[in-house]
Amino acid sequence: MKLLKFDLPVLKGLVVIAVVVSLSACSIFKNKHDSLDTMPVDALYNKAHVSLEKSDYAAAGKAFQRLIARFPSGEYNEQAQLELAYAQYKANRPDDALSTVNRFIKTYPTNKHVDYAYYLRGLINFDRTGGAIERLLKRSDQQSRRDQAYNLQAFDDFSELARRFPDSAYTADARQRMIYLRNVLAQYEINVAEFYLRNKAYVASADRAQYVIEHYQQAPQTGDALAILARSYLAMDQKEQSDKVRKVLALNYPDHPYLDDPKWPHPPSTLRKMVPFSGHH
What is the DSSP string of 201-251? Predict the structure, then answer.
């Protein structure tokens, strides 16, 4: 095997080039790494904000966190905390986002954007049950078959926004989300009431139905609650009470199926139970 042979001047030249390239590369990477630690506050904020606008939530979050650490006070710090919470929310890090936004609300209760912080807190909890895909497909029936802790919290968050800032630009949307959540929460109670009714736990089904009537009066599920309550009373041999509830149902929901079908609601079919993710199990 023939070895390559370099003249000494050529070899020295290659060594010099290699060293220069190596140092240049190190300098480039070092500058890139250290830029977040050396940039002035306005440039650092702009860098983070541009990353946020480009949907690079990881880069935005990293830059906002460095800004907050390096500049622990001032308008840039306050704005960075709020935008950091949004970046974490969009990056599907709800626990971090909630921690950040709660800290912002507690630390800066008079900030001019604190209404947005309350709104963002509601959004974080709003998206924790199910997700955007189900809402996009209008699958609220699936939502109503899951644990409702986050939906209850989101409802309270939006309610607090509406109470504290009735004229906020975010309040109208918050109220619309509250209506959606109210209906989901009411349907959840109806699902539980139907389960108790099918299993002949009539006191429990009546209690759940009564809860819907008392707490979600404007929800479309109120008619179902009245029907379940009437049927539960009838099953418990409280015909007088059942007749009273039935009259209220007929007056307010004259087309409700229970008025013509005393066995409403019917249990789900065996075929429906076999459908994956139908919720009827």
Answer: -HHHHHHHHHHHHHH-TTSTTHHHHHHHHHHHHHHTT-HHHHHHHHHHHHH
> Cβ-count burial of 38 within 10 angstroms (0-12 exposed, 13-18 middle, 19+ buried)?
exposed
Quote the CA–CA distance of 51 and 49 in Å, as a whole number: 5
> Cβ neighbours of residue 22 under 8 Å, at least 6 residues apart?
none
CB atoms within 10 A of CB 104: 24
Q: Compute the distance between CA of residue 143 and CA of residue 148 in angstroms, rounded to an integer.
A: 8
> % helix / strand / coil in the chain, to the nearest 5?
75, 0, 25
Q: What is the mean pLDDT of residues 144-169?
A: 91
Please name the residues in contact with 11: beta carbons below 8 A apart, sequence gap of 6 or more.
none
Go through the domains of the chain in sequence order and give each one's CATH number: 39-109 (1.25.40.10)
Distance between start and end Cα atoms, the chain: 75
Instruction: Mark 198-216 as b/e (b = at least 16 C-beta within 10 Å).
Output: eeeebebbbbbbbebbeeb
Pairwise pLDDT comparison (25 vs 196), residue with the higher score: 196
The pair of structure tokens assigned to 253 is 């929901």
User: What is the value of pTM for the model shown?
Assistant: 0.77
